Amino acid sequence: MATHNDFGKQAEDVAAEYLQKNGYKILVRNFRFQKAEIDIIAEKDNLIIIAEVKARSTDAFMLPQEAVTKTKIKSIVAAANHYLEKFNKDQEVRFDIISVLPDEKKNLIIEHITDAFEAFDAN
């Protein structure tokens, strides 16, 4: 497996751990629908949280959250809709982005952007 894939997996693990420590219940990780994937689906305060984890080894070119394009949002929303229907969930949904970047000492810094986008942002 390529090093960037290892870093991406590590970032998802750190993000899931962060969410759990902050009172979120992880429902599913790496939920797939067609070509789309949702990194983490969690629940907190009767909300379904769809979390996209974005990691970069540096922010020299762009912040991790800037990599969440309209196309990516469309695929996340489609996968989220499928999840809600498949598991008969009727709770309100929130879309978050969790950005993971290493600092100068290689410690991973997490930025949790709640309500980062809405389903209609995909249009």
From TrEMBL:
The keyword Transcription does not apply. It comes from the Bacteria. Pfam families: UPF0102 (PF02021). GO terms for molecular function: endonuclease activity; nucleic acid binding. Keywords: Endonuclease, Hydrolase, Nuclease. The keyword Cell division does not apply. Belongs to the UPF0102 family. PANTHER family: UPF0102 PROTEIN YRAN. This is UPF0102 protein SAMN05421866_2089. It comes from Chryseobacterium oranimense. The lineage of its organism: Bacteria, Pseudomonadati, Bacteroidota, Flavobacteriia, Flavobacteriales.
